[in-house]
Design goal:
- The structure holds 3 protein chains of 3 kinds.
- By secondary structure, chain A is mainly alpha-helical.
- In chain A, 73% of the residues lie in helices and 1% in strands.
- Chain A has one domain (8-246).
- Chain A has helices spanning 5-26, 29-55, 62-77, 80-86, 92-95, 101-123, 128-148, 150-153, 168-186, 189-199, 201-206, 211-232, 234-237, 247-260, 265-289, 294-309, and strands spanning 3-4, 322-323.
- In chain A, helix 2 (29-55) crosses helix 14, helix 3 packs across helix 12 (211-232) and helix 10 (189-199) packs across helix 12.
- Chain B is mainly alpha-helical.
- Chain B is globular, with a radius of gyration of 19 Å.
- By secondary structure, chain C is of the alpha/beta class.
- In chain C, strands 6-7-8-3-9-10 form a 6-stranded mixed β-sheet, sandwiched between helices. A 4-stranded antiparallel β-sheet of chain C has the order 2-1-4-5, with helices on one face.
- Chain C has helices spanning 40-47, 74-79, 97-104, 111-124, 126-130, 141-154, 171-188, 199-205, 223-228, 230-236, and strands at 2-11, 14-24, 29-33, 55-62, 65-68, 82-85, 159-163, 191-195, 208-213, 216-222.
- Chain C is 39% helix and 27% strand.
- Chain C has a domain at 2-90 and 159-236: Rossmann fold (3-Layer(aba) Sandwich).
- Classes of the chains: A mainly alpha, B mainly alpha, C alpha/beta.
- Chains in contact: A-B, B-C.
- The B-C interface holds B 164, 167-168, 170-171, 174-175, 177-185 and C 48, 50, 74-75, 77-79, 83-84, 86, 90-95, 99, 102-104, 106-107, 151, 155.
């Protein structure tokens, strides 16, 4: 019994609303943060599915775009009182700004997208291994820039006291946007073209599809959402350092996407939520047993096991439980 | 040439030697299984920690120098046997993820058992003695590292070019089907390349600890990635290329940091990876390699 | 020497060989012809131990030696003297001619014997001797075929499996190759199982033949019989009626 897509969407929105309302009612700051981060992770996972899964790219660069989005947004929203102290070398016109979250998000996403366009045009022609290492290098480059431009970013010490203005509604809306965009893209002809590129690039070319253009498109759209995610997170947890979004995060995101199925949106959502929940349970275990790093090992181990058993991920390119061909009927 | 410059060049050669050792293994492994082995850098770390452990256990240094590469060989072969053999026919992305997972698993296991605190590592004091070379004074260790590196590189190259098993390894790198049809033991050839790579990386770890004084469980990942950059510069699949690439990268990294104003010192890693991207765009097959098309 | 009985082989979900039976006797030259996709290459790969057998028997008998090919490793099969020259030659392009030949004799432990064999190969194929230090990839198609044969010789073949030896080669070169193969057959008594698209060539060269269609043998007989068979003439020899 597969659910028509329209109803699945309604169901998703309903669950989202229920979760947000429930947490608001419980008025528990911890739960609020938890839900916000879980939703942002879903957004990141879905956007990486878009970038990597659809066209078969292998980009590890999401954290780099998150870092860019984060710093751009924080520079725009940081309250003026402490701004001079935190970011002394900021030019005057930026120093005076203290924006609300939404416009900052837009600029952050845009900045990440532009960066992705520039990087993508140069790097996306490379073969898999080289692309992967190049995008890893991108993380290191962006992190290095963030550490060294410390007049603006406060370097390795990081920025704290960031206003917690990312409320659950904003986060929920962004998450929903990501899911809807990814879904609509995948089931439109553009998405089908991307999947064709993933399966067999040469054959796709024979049908007039330009793989490079599609890859750049997927890369940029994914990066925009990565930038949004990066912009949201510091406004939930109030701190931002150059190392906030690093190689480990790249790995974890890729793990979610690969396990979920590299092209399955529902898969990405489910696995991302599963990992968020599991991590929450394992964390206290880590503290009691003093075995730090346990979560990471378990994730890495689970990943290896899943890949050996199901090399295409749990759900492949399909969408479990949902029938994308039917809207409401 | 100023003394400062000469010292920087010497530092560059030392660093370059370490990169070269790791890069050779990278190159061999990529040549034979067409996979970027993210876990390779961790073998450097294992070598360093093994050395520290053995010294603490009271073993004399000459013995440590012999045991460390053996441990590296076994570790490399073990990694291949456990993780890489199973994914040999799998799609490239799977292979990628698995090697990254293995790297992270190893690092975190070491973190778990050994803690994240950096440990001190020092060679016997005569390594620090300075020796006069013409007009210049060089620390013994900065002479020994490049010397040992070149010897090991030459030996490995000789093995691969001249011995029956070495030629078999090259054959497997060239054409697995044909190799199999000649009765060449594929598994053994692959395991051997992982083992040799592991041994060289472990020696690099030993030297790294001795030269820079501190080791920690995460020390291998970044050098591993940089060794990959060196491999790309020199041309993937070529041992001489890996060596040259290692020295080019080591010298470039040190000289850029040394010659630019000191406020730019932190851009060291940024520079290395910008260089990678540049090389990949401009001359993807590097200086010596002609392995395959790097462009999609 | 070689006997296949009712062999079934699956590749992925495709049932490629569906009850294939054939034999090759000592010193015989047998050809396997048939349309593309019929399973000819698959047959040779199976004999070489590269593909698993789902059902059926593959047996090898050579004097006192007996080998169950379905349960043997590729190395053991090569060691028994069943040498496979794959489609497209598959030389080790960046290794030298000499290194290629040496690798052909990888399993031969008798070093002196190996050196003698190398010498003999160079005598038989002077072109290879001339270019012994050059990378194999720099050789022409015909020269690469000779290299592939030389490589096979180094392994002391009792049965040679040839997959499309004439592919991509000019007719004159093909003639030379055929002469070389005939000389080999005469002088060393090597049995040959040959796959060829060029059915006419195959039936001229071989003594016996099998026609493989959709994973099964549909016709067999002496080369002369097959050559006269009307359906075969029509389907594979391009002759009307």
């Amino acid at each position: 019994m597969r659910l028509p897509a329209g109803w699945a969407l309604v169901g998703f929105v309903a669950l989202l609303l229920a979760a947000i309302l429930g947490v608001q009612w419980a008025d528990d700051g911890y739960l609020r943060t938890l839900l916000a981060l879980a939703l942002i992770n879903v957004m990141l996972a879905v956007s990486l599915t878009l970038t990597n899964g659809f066209t078969g790219l292998f980009s590890l660069g999401h954290p780099a775009f998150m870092t860019i989005g984060a710093y751009v947004a924080v520079v725009l929203t940081y309250p003026g009182r402490r701004k001079g102290f935190m970011m002394p070398e900021l030019p005057d016109w930026l120093m005076g700004l203290e924006w609300p979250l939404w416009p900052a998000l837009l600029v952050a996403g845009f900045a990440a997208g532009v960066m992705a366009l520039l990087v993508g045009l140069s790097v996306l022609r490379l073969r898999t291994h080289y692309l992967a290492v190049a995008t890893l290098g991108l993380i290191i480059i962006v992190e290095g820039l963030a550490v060294n431009l410390d007049g603006i970013t406060r370097g390795g010490r990081g920025i704290n006291g960031i206003p917690r203005i990312a409320d659950l509604w904003t986060v929920g809306a962004c998450c929903l946007l990501a899911v809807v965009v990814a879904w609509r893209l995948k089931h439109a002809s553009l998405g089908r073209a991307m999947l064709a590129v993933r399966e067999n690039e040469m054959a796709a070319r024979c049908f007039g599809i330009d793989p490079f253009r599609l890859k750049v498109m997927a890369f940029v759209i994914g990066a925009v959402f990565a930038g949004l995610g990066g912009a949201l997170i510091p406004h939930v947890i109030a701190v931002l350092t150059p190392g906030s979004f690093g190689i480990l995060l790249a790995f974890n995101l890729v793990a979610v996407v690969v396990v979920g199925g590299q092209g399955s949106i529902v898969g990405a959502v489910l696995i991302s939520l599963a990992i968020s929940i599991v991590t929450e349970f394992i964390r206290p275990l880590e503290e009691t047993t003093q075995l730090f790093g346990l979560t990471q090992i378990l994730i890495a181990g689970a990943l290896i096991v899943v890949l050996l058993w199901r090399p295409r991920g749990l759900f492949g390119v399909g969408e479990p439980l949902i029938d994308p061909g039917r809207r409401f009927r | 040439m100023s003394d400062y410059l000469i010292q920087q060049i010497i530092n560059g050669l030392t660093l370059g030697s370490l990169y070269a050792l790791v890069a050779i293994g990278f190159s061999m492994i990529y040549g034979i299984v067409r996979l970027v082995n993210f876990a390779h850098g961790d073998l450097l770390m294992i070598g360093a920690f093994t050395a520290v452990g053995l010294v603490q256990a009271g073993l004399p240094w000459p013995l440590v120098f012999v045991i460390v590469p053996v441990v590296g060989f076994l570790a490399g072969a073990l990694v291949e046997r456990i993780a890489f053999r199973a994914i040999r026919g799998a799609p490239m992305i799977t292979g990628f993820i698995v090697t990254l997972s293995v790297a992270i698993a190893i690092q975190n296991l070491m973190l778990l058992f050994l803690g994240g605190q950096p440990r001190n590592f020092s060679f016997p004091s005569w390594f620090r003695e300075r020796v006069a070379l013409g007009a210049v004074e060089v620390a013994m260790i900065d002479l020994i590292i490049p010397l040992v590196t070149l010897i090991l590189a030459a030996t490995t190259y000789g093995f691969v070019r001249l011995t029956r098993l070495g030629k078999a390894m090259r054959a497997v790198s060239e054409n697995v089907l044909a190799a199999r049809l000649m009765g060449i033991p594929i598994d053994r050839a692959v395991m051997l390349s992982f083992g040799i790579g592991g041994a060289l990386a472990a020696v690099a770890g030993l030297f790294w600890g001795g030269r820079y004084g501190q080791i920690d469980p995460l020390m291998g990942f970044l050098p591993g990635l940089k060794a990959f950059v060196a491999t790309v510069i020199g041309g993937v699949g070529s041992i001489p290329g890996a060596v040259v690439g290692g020295y080019v990268l080591g010298l470039a990294e040190i000289l850029v940091v040394g010659l630019l104003p000191s406020q730019y010192a932190g851009y060291r890693d940024v520079f290395v990876f910008l260089l990678l991207i540049l090389v990949l765009l401009v001359r993807p097959h590097g200086l010596f390699g002609a392995l395959e098309e790097e462009r999609a | 020497m070689l006997s296949l009985q009712d062999v079934h082989v699956r590749r992925g979900r495709t049932h490629v060989l569906r009850g294939l039976s054939l034999t090759v006797g000592e010193g015989e030259i047998v050809t396997l012809i048939g349309p593309n996709g019929a399973g000819k290459s698959t047959t040779l790969m199976t004999i070489s131990g590269l593909l698993p057998v789902s059902e059926g028997e593959l047996q090898w008998e050579d004097g006192d030696a007996r080998l169950d090919l379905a349960r043997s490793s590729p190395a053991a099969i090569v060691g028994a003297g069943i040498i496979h020259c794959p489609e497209g030659r598959q030389v080790f392009a960046r290794l030298t001619v000499q290194e290629n030949l040496e690798l052909g004799g990888y399993l031969v432990t008798d070093v002196a014997g190996r050196r003698r064999m190398l010498h003999e190969v160079y005598q038989r194929f002077p072109v290879l001797a001339e270019r012994r230090g050059y990378p194999a990839g720099s050789l022409s198609g015909g020269e690469q075929m000779m290299l592939a044969l030389g490589r096979a010789l180094m392994a002391r073949p009792r049965l040679l499996l040839l997959d499309e030896p004439s592919l991509g080669l000019a007719p004159r070169i093909v003639e030379e190759i055929v002469e070389l193969l005939q000389a080999l057959h005469r002088e060393r008594g090597v049995a040959i199982l040959l796959i060829e698209q060029n059915a006419m060539l195959a039936l001229e060269f071989a003594q016996r033949g099998y026609v493989l269609e959709q994973g099964r043998i549909v016709e067999s007989g002496s080369a002369a019989e097959l050559g006269d068979h009307p359906r075969i003439r029509q389907a594979y020899l391009g002759v009307a009626g």
